[in-house]
Please model this.
Amino acid sequence: MRRFLIILGFITSILAVILSVSPLSNIAFIPAVLALICGFIAFYLSRQKQYPTKSIQLILLLTIISLTITTYKAVFNVAEVGNIESLELKVKESEKEAIEELEGLDLDDMEIDTEDEPNFSEIDSLP
Amino acid sequence: MKHFLLFAYAIVCTSTFAQNTSIGSNENLTFSASYNMSGLLTEIAQVTMETSEVNTSNTTLLRLKCTAATYSSFDNYFKIRDLYESYVSRTTLLPFLHKRDINEGSYYKFMQYKFNHKTRTVESTLKKKNTAENKTLKIGANTRDIVSTIYHIRNLDIHKASPGDIQNFTFLFDEEELIISVKYLKKETINTNLGKKECYKLAISLKNDDALKGTNENLLWLTADGNKIPVYAKFKIAVGTGELKIKSASGLKN
Model:
């Protein structure tokens, strides 16, 4: 049981550290909390049976690092759009091209051939 | 009797094309798209929906433009710069030209549809990094593109609907006609960045595609006023849920 908890604690704490440095840092809270729970239970069992606790301390250290990074990012990082100059340029070019395309279309009479689309009020309610 | 029939026909003709009562010609809506896993929200991208007028030599059209751009923290991992456009009639919101320019990571795709509602055909152009393809597609009488369908849904007379009412719309996506089903659930008041708003709660599902999963789990909240602004949307994906929340709105019609 103690060994299983230590292995699980290591996996989840390492996952928490990896997630905390990625843009999906908020999700790191889930493995970090799991690692904390595993770490504390393993620590309690180790103290009962007088086993060494070095590996458990490492789990807790990794978890604290990941929680610190995640909390810092959650509080101080502001979501900002990056460089969208190329997109803005594309928007302008696209409009120019679209006008050329539209000039070639016969826009007259196009609106008269569609069938009547029922509105919400004309549709039967579901049973 | 003849006069009555003529009068009835005139009423039917005028009601056939729902007039644009909700979409302004200089509207700008900004949203934040986020991923929600067990209540932990991660903001991923900014989505904008803009309208503007476009003049050609013989008419003025409404340009409906939607863009999606990932936030800078995601740009190094998976950069998205998408542009969806539709050039529609100002009064009926019927599309004439639709363009879709997708730039996601190393993936690129360009799609263009030129609608001819008279012959019920669409001239389709597909461009990828190394390929280009032109096709002529047959479409149904009420087939639109995805952008004009979204704006068309906003223009519906939802105030006349009763909870449980459903309406289907056909739209062309990836050269295939898909049917989107919109079900009016109820009125609900929610907190948004624009303040507390009374909204129409709609459930959205795709009939012949499994991109949207679950029943009544893909939801859209439109403000229950003349503008019917989409203030909040929630959609189920493989792991967790995606959310779209309004950040700002300007240039509204009403």
In short: The two ends of chain A are 54 Å apart (CA to CA). Residues 54-76 of chain A form the longest helix (23 residues). The mean pLDDT of chain A is 84.
